[in-house]
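Section 3.1: Structural characterization of target chains.
Under the original work plan, the team committed to producing a structural model for every single-chain target entering the pipeline before any wet-lab resources were allocated. The record below documents one such target. The sequence was received from the expression subgroup and is listed exactly as submitted; it comprises 226 residues.
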Amino acid sequence: MLVREHATLVKRIAHHLLGRLPDSVQLDDLIQAGMIGLIEAARKYDGGKGASFETYAGIRIRGSMLDEIRRGDWAPRSVHRNARRISAAIRQVENEKGRDAEDTEVAAVLGISQDEYHSILQDSAGCRLFSFEEVLEKSESGFDVFDDEGLPGPQDGVERESFQLQLAGAIKTLPEREQLVLALYYDEELNLKEIGAVLGVSESRVSQLHSQAAHRLRTRLSGWMG
């Protein structure tokens, strides 16, 4: 009964994730993985621990989809390598300047043109090295939500609250436009094309801004993300 009632939740999460993933990721694969997560959620859910089933199931569904993406490892090694280079360059510029790194400055550190930098940002937009969805997964679910114990325990709650504070603080330090992209995408659930219309920029530029925000957050949450 729980699985049948919440099947639409799987499709909604799958479509939301697909909006920022490469064409090689198929919607049907995400839905299939999400259904496995939903079935697991129905099997392990304990209503006496406080969380609603929809909240708990959403965490497991998204987790299953992210696991499927990670297993596929669609990104070439060059994408992973370039993603690490971007994060390191952003960290270097911001440490030196004491402010947000600008595109031209990051490109200069990398020794490439601004157009090449934007192209790399586009390629790394969904790179599994740092997925903003994974940050949200930690923020919402705690750190041991996928163990055999089911729902998070008291220690998970302490870690989750601490991480949420660090994440909220890090997001507030982002450039205003990047904050707006994240808010429109994750809070308002607009897709990249719709966000582009709001900001008056192309869909590809929104993708670049989203990716750059993720790289900045990776550097500012390095103690949590590893």
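The radius of gyration is 18 Å.
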